[in-house]
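Slide 14.
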Amino acid sequence: GRSLIDTPALSRWATRPVTLAGTPVRIVAAILGAITFGTFVNWLVTYDVRPLLVMVGIGQAFAAVWRAQVWEVIRGIDRPRADLSRLRRLLNRLEDTSFNAPLLQSLAARLAPHHGMRPSQRLQRLIILMEYAESWRNLFFAPFAVMLLWALQFAFAIEAWRSSDGRHALDWLDAVAEMEALLSLSAQAWEHPDDAFPTLLDDGPRVEGRALAHPLLAARRAVRNDVSLHEGCCLMLVSGSNMAGKSSLLRTVGVNVVLALAGASVRAREMNVSPCAVGACMRVQDSLQQGISHFYAEIKRLRQVVDMAGGDPPLLFLLDEILHGTNSHDRRIGAEAVVRTMCTRNAIGLVTTHDLALTQIVASLAPRAVNVHFQDELVDGKMSFDYTLHPGVVQKSNAIALMRAVGLEV
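Slide 15: predicted structure.
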């Protein structure tokens, strides 16, 4: 079954406008229900059904005023009830745990009892109301539900809970979500004791990593590389053949920077990072429905990344196969203009390409840019990659060899 809490749906349910409110209505409904049930008992004793029919009619006429809102409330509790049950179990676990770290203590303080009840108890009260509210679906109980104005009474009770505690539920959910994030980061560090904790720097922009690897690659398969980006070197232009590891390098740098800034350990021997925003242009797709070509989608995304440059904190840009949807001449001019703009705005980053003409961008930005590349070898008809970053521009391409390797006559 579904194990995650649908946070957006639960937030919408908890904060939507209250449709049923008013203590007098609830009191009148309770009185009418009690009187109607009394006439039911009278019927069993005297066999006179007329008082019962009269009271049922009065009760249903009274309930008809709010029938639409009542059924809206009743129909809308199925999904929130499942999510609230999961949230209650999480809250109950956290409430019974003591913490020593100041951050965790501050989170626990947000789950402190209110009006003598813990958050899990207040949620449990709501869950019970929801379960009672749906009792009318039981065929044996349905006649009694009609007499007691059951749906009306519990719909008002549920809305009263939302009015008093709905906004608190969002705060409980935020505290649980933050705790879950911290637990995930701690689990990452515990499961990978060889990963380093980064050094966070005040001066930047700076991203330096020694022996970086992607956290999702198995240790025995991952090939580690060094990356150094700072004010004196704003660009690393990565050339190389297809499948050589260019895109994986961008993902490696990006995910490790995000982990570092989140306070997690990183897959590296050593890493120094200053605060930065991460802007990426990778895996851009065209859209038939929107009438957008791949190139247009890419330049729109590039515009978003460029707009991030010059802000605070500085930008780390990761551009994969920049402008490969257009001709070589326009690609060369456009790519240089984009990269130059971002470097001028104090951004740093990596750009990958298999178009060797773009490697000339480095000369125009020297000494603040460097060329690096990945190599490959054709051994016994099979491509072999070392996934190791080398200085300079790649000297060969493997496109023809790959086409021949899959059986194309080239």
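Speaker note: The beta strands are 199-200, 206-212, 225-230, 235-239, 270-273, 277-281, 315-319, 348-353, 369-379, 382-391.
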